[in-house]
């Protein structure tokens, strides 16, 4: 989630003048959109913790996240895109190719995203079996994204990914989200969709974008609507 100077000053219990001084001295993580200074809530949380800056108890919360609409998997895929014939020779080159395919905001450093994906895989493989993986940043809150998205990359050749079943990976779903709530929601929807044999078949056959989205919508239409506001991008 993006924050402005006033938000940061309130959460850190300091004056706005202090925040501006920290920005000028490059002591606090910040970025600019035009002439406006903006911050990532996740980066502020980590910075405050590392620098032992006293914070408001609400710093650990995701404001408004409980009232924001949750995305559908199909809608998130439409936003993130489906890419075919992606070149890769091993796990790390696959992650590099994924980052090139991601529709990242201009203020997001692609090298940082790659490193986040690589570090996550070093912890434990995101290979979920049957040639499919769900690489994602360990800390979804670090990304300056306004709307959650999922990108599906279908590799030209399968690569070893350390999956528990030992099967090389060729299909990779990557989630970008500014909140843990939306991240976990999409991760659970991917896991549910992958249980469907027709979805699995469409992925393994490298079916068209239209077919893949149709199968995912079909599965999602059988799921209960999340509590709260209507999901993003309408019904599944």
H/E element sequence = EHHEEHHEHHEEEEHHH
Q: Give the terminus-to-terminus CA distance.
A: 24 Å
Largest beta sheet: strand ordering? 4-7-8-6-5
Radius of gyration: 19 Å
Q: Indicate the structural class.
A: alpha/beta
Structure report:
The protein has helices at 5-12, 16-24, 41-50, 73-80, 91-101, 110-123, 180-193, 197-204, 209-220, and strands spanning 2-3, 31-33, 36-40, 82-86, 127-129, 132-133, 149-159, 169-176. It is α/β, with parallel strands linked by helices and 236 residues long. The chain has a five-stranded mixed β-sheet with strand order 4-7-8-6-5. A three-stranded antiparallel β-sheet has the order 1-3-2. Strand 5 and strand 6 (132-133) form a beta hairpin.
Layout of helices and strands:
Blueprint: E1 2-3, H1 5-12, H2 16-24, E2 31-33, E3 36-40, H3 41-50, H4 73-80, E4 82-86, H5 91-101, H6 110-123, E5 127-129, E6 132-133, E7 149-159, E8 169-176, H7 180-193, H8 197-204, H9 209-220
Helix pairs in contact: 1-2, 4-9, 5-6, 8-9
Summarize the structure in short.
The protein is α/β, with parallel strands linked by helices and 236 residues long. It has helices at 5-12, 16-24, 41-50, 73-80, 91-101, 110-123, 180-193, 197-204, 209-220, and strands at 2-3, 31-33, 36-40, 82-86, 127-129, 132-133, 149-159, 169-176.
Task: Please supply descriptive tags for the structure shown above.
236 residues; alpha/beta; Multidrug-efflux Transporter Regulator, Chain: A, Domain 2; Mannitol-specific EII, Chain A; 2 domains; five-stranded mixed sheet; three-stranded antiparallel sheet; 40% helix; elongated
């Amino acid at each position: 989630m993006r924050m402005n100077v006033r938000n940061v000053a309130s959460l850190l219990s300091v004056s706005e003048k202090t925040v501006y001084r920290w920005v000028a001295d490059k002591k606090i993580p910040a970025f600019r959109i035009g002439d406006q200074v903006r911050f990532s809530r996740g980066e502020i949380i980590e910075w405050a913790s590392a620098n032992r800056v006293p914070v408001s108890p609400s710093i650990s919360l995701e404001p408004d996240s409980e009232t924001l609409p949750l995305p559908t998997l199909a809608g998130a895929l439409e936003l993130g895109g489906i890419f075919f014939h992606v070149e890769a020779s091993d796990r790390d080159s696959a992650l590099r190719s994924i980052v090139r395919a991601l529709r990242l905001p201009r203020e997001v450093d692609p090298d940082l995203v790659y490193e986040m994906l690589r570090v996550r895989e070093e912890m434990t493989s995101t290979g979920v079996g049957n040639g499919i993986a769900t690489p994602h940043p360990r800390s979804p809150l670090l990304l300056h994204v306004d709307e959650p998205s999922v990108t599906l990359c279908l590799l030209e050749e399968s690569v070893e990914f350390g999956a528990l079943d030992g099967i090389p990976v060729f299909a990779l779903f990557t989630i970008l989200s500014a909140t843990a709530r939306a991240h976990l929601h999409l991760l659970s929807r991917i896991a549910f969709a992958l249980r469907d044999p027709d979805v699995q078949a469409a992925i393994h056959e490298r079916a068209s974008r239209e077919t893949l989205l149709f199968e995912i919508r079909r599965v999602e239409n059988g799921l209960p609507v999340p509590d709260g506001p209507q999901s993003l991008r309408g019904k599944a």
